[in-house]
Hints:
By secondary structure, the chain is of the alpha+beta class. The chain is built from 5 helices and 3 strands. It is elongated, with a radius of gyration of 21 Å.
Amino acid sequence: MGLANRRDRWGLRPSTVWLKSQQSQKDHLMGKRKYPPLTPSEVKSIVIALGFRYKRTQGGHAHYEREARGKFPRSIVTVDEHYPQFDDDLIKKMIGQSKHSRDEFYGATKNTAKKASVTLYVVPALEVAQ
């Protein structure tokens, strides 16, 4: 029985507002998240695509650094290599460390852009001062 044919206990059909709220709850439960989980290897490929370079590993935490460039200040992203997948809080922190938006961060690689349903972000080339 589809959602459109359902009736409540009084025999009335639900309103379209109810149907939309049910669908959005279903979408939320089906895994459409604002911050889809990422593995450490996915995060490493994202930060490398965003122009970061590997700096060092200290106690299972890999540090990636990017020098100041254009509108982006110097920044360091720390990737904890012990997690099988990162949760929302850690991903938000890494996005904040990178000084990029959520869409730019997830859109840095083709795989993660598809996972988060964002457009592929092309990192601007470095301006060469002459």
